[in-house]
Queue: 4 jobs
Job 1
Amino acid sequence: MILEMKVPSPGESITEVEIAEWLVNDGDYVEKDQAIAEVDSDKATLELPAEESGIITLKAEEGDAVAVGEVVCLIDTSAEKPADSVEKDKKVETAIVQEAKKEVAVEKKSEKTYATGTPSPAAKKILDEKGIDAKTVGGTGKDGRITKDDAVKAVPSMGSPTGGNRSEKRTKLSMLRRKVAERLVSAKNETAMLTTFNEVDMSSVFELRKEYKEVFKERHDVGLGFMSFFTKAVIRALDLFPSVNSMIDGKEMISFDFCDISIAVSGPKGLMVPVIRNAENLSFRGVEAEVKRLALRARDGQITVDEMTGGTFTISNGGVFGSMLSTPIINPPQSGILGMHNIVERPIVKNGAVEIAPIMYVALSYDHRIIDGKESVGFLVAIKEALENPVELLMEGDVNKALEL
């Protein structure tokens, strides 16, 4: 029986995918549920499993854009799994030996001699007149000698001749990367995006993590990181400034009474932005556990489209890569994104005296069409206040209760 494998729908509104990579070869025997291909949609990279066991015939090439429901391969389910053959192994071994002999022959053939790169007298005169170093000219004569014709065709370099490698490589962008590019350009062109900055003294957060991170990890099997503090601070600020938790839909503004926080994480296929649903209902432990779960799924390429849609606000942590300051781009159709950066000890003034403290620069990029400057600055100040006084503003004065210790 010949089974036609069609492209399944990876999510609502997605009409086509791209064959990113075939994981099997045409004519291979595949097992049921074996991953046979990676396909890119405009939102995620997914694995395509074999629906049945049998001999596979590929009907699409890597890089092809195929419509959802289109046949991409055939599986002959009546074919028996081929037994290992000693003769086949011998053929492979023989082919490898022959290929090695060819390589040795090519190497011997391409061995350099005293004539390699040496210009003939006529060629040398022409090169000297042109001011061209003979080392920069490839010789086509016997044993690589530079002929008069080589010298005539040689073109002087407009820059400093270095003799270094000047090759280039072209790689087709994946559908996911192309969609990301389109969305970024769209966000820049279709929103009135501005960015406001502030700095946060992370001393209080550092002290809390230093005192409680070990017992927190032991109790909950997850680390007490910075994301839970920032997520909690963002949720508080969104409650104080609801316009930041809104988005434009045509001539209307949609405001949300829940906080679905998108977190930017780096995956093998590029930037992924999974969503923490109803983050306002999560404890510190709940946020850290969800961040860990989503980050692992992104790293392993298991993030689904549903897990990356529907966020109302985004947090991006460029600090993990060493970024000091940046202007993050809004994740449409959202209206705001908070950029976190690296934490560096800097001199600051406290109570009239200069002290050294761990400082993080934070940035809020926002859509000025629905968020005014006063609200954007107030939002960022609210985050600063919460992070500099987390026990009172994020933990209601009870650290043990907030951390569920």
Note: The chain is about 30% helix and 25% strand.
Job 2
Amino acid sequence: MEIYLFRHGETDWNKERRLQGHSDIPLNGFGRELAVETAGSLAGLTFDRAFSSPLKRAFETAQILLAGRNVPLETDERLMEMGFGDCEGGAFDLPKADPEHPLHDFFCRPQLFSPRGGAESFREAQARGQAFLQERILPLEGNCGRVLIVAHGALNRCLLSAIGNIPLEKFWEIGLPNCAASILSLEGGKFRILEMGKVYYGTPVNARP
């Protein structure tokens, strides 16, 4: 079984380099264009099941990717982006430059990150993502050929890190542009990464924060 794990299209907060987390920010016009172009490139693929984060930016991306297909779209809160608590809406670049910022380690030394101010830990996000895969995706093996999942940059990296045994030190080396697919396989109950960060449009955008 193949799994196409997508990151959502661009939002205004992506373009402005602001932390989104659980904030429910919709796609912008360019983000919709990316999703439409991506959908065109996927026209020859059949999806048997589809899942999305309930946040607007992921759900709308999934709707666009599934346009014209008779595939019901299910949401699961475990696919929501990592939560950044009090820091949501803030700029990416400030915590990178300030060692005292609550998210400095998140960006610069993820292996040392300890959440503050209502933020979520890598372990917590990874645990809920893995629970989703075990409970909703694993049982589909043998019954489905291809499954679509649309979620978020940090959450998808958490899943890929777990599946590929990628240490947190290399978390941000995983490039995931907006509307990029990471293609996984599921065989004999084991997930495997076939390809990461594949884009179906021109120049990749927002690959790293």
Note: Residues 2-198 form a domain with the Rossmann fold fold (CATH 3.40.50.1240).
Job 3
Amino acid sequence: MTAELSGLTVRIDTGRWSGTVLTDVDLTVPAGRITAVLGGPGAGKTMLACALTGRLPTTARYEGRISINGAAVGGQQSLGENVVGYVPQEGVTAFATDTTVGAQLQSLQRRHGAWSVERACAAAQYPTDTSDLLPRQHSGGQIQRAALAAALLPAPPVLIADGPTNSLDAATAYGVWRSLRDYADSGAAVLVVSNEVRILAHGGFADQMVILDRGRVLAAGTAAELTESTDMFVRALLTSTF
């Protein structure tokens, strides 16, 4: 299954602020590969992830085409956990506030699970000894991994993860990337929003790296191709994160 954006432009109008956050974006996330999206603050990375998962805010209007496996979908149309798994930028928002993470993972497994909770937690590097805590009682890194475990439970053919290794030490982040690589190798289309260029460039995890700047695709290619770029912004971004 493939996820694709074609000529996507997204404008936000809150009544107090309006602006264009993505402009004419073309992007293909093919099955069996990891696509990593990078860029500075305000580049539009999270909005791109939201578009692919049917989670554009109600204040958004868009032009262009969003499609899953060739079928057009809406930017505010829920696609279901069995089709597109999603790890939000703030992992805590993936859970209800008043129930333990463990109970919620068990509930998700009963309703949508193709994987066991144990398998999903192991792949996400989520420490199950914290599963009896409420979401807000987790650290940022812990709840982000719990959100990844939740997204993996249905074994969706498309996985969109926004910062799944945020707040993690290098060893744990490497383990998460290894799991994401394995998941893509199993046939899933995986897109990851990340700024971990050091791991991406030298770990061999991403098949394609896409760099956004002010809502536009500035460059796309393999890690080796981008490190040879003569574009000053691309070189500055890669240098700043090495």
Note: The domain at 3-91+157-241 is CATH 3.40.50.300 (Rossmann fold).
Job 4
Amino acid sequence: MSVQLKSEKRTYTLRRRAEQQAETRRRIVEAAVDLHGSIGPALTTFSMVAERAGVQRHTLYAHFPDERSLYLACSGLAIERDPPPDADPWRAIEDQHERWRVGLRAIYGWYERNAALTACVLRDAESHALVREIVELRLGPPMAACREVLGAKLGAKQRAVLQLALSFFTWRTLVREGGLKPGAAVEAMVQAIDCAK
């Protein structure tokens, strides 16, 4: 066999191995995201993730040596699939009430699409330090941008009501538990912010 053929075969073998490892990693991360959205990250064990992904625990540990590395991968995939709303374009909306409406519609739409995962993760963030750290890392900056853009020129009371309006739990209470249509929930919060002057 020529040196060139041996080199090509080795390159093909390495490429194929890298593809298999990437596929295994993807299965592990998707399994973890599914579990985090059903039972929550705090209750998800490495054994459960390995079983759902169809891999051995040692394979999981080879890709993710600790919970933090797995949580970062899971949250990264979830954010990549459906990023939180970008508040920057809302700056161009001059009418403050319309800016609130546009922003809250976008945020409430994101909550609707990610309700199960968000509920489990935020619940666990209350008592699990690592989950709290990852939530702050992934959701802290975009939510701070939303507060900053929507809260421009608001007094303390209005900013407090805006904070309430931006909460996932407010959305869940209004829409899922209270039965309001998303548009009605947005209008209720716009009115509440306006009345808090």
Note: The CA atoms of residues 25 and 62 lie 10 Å apart.
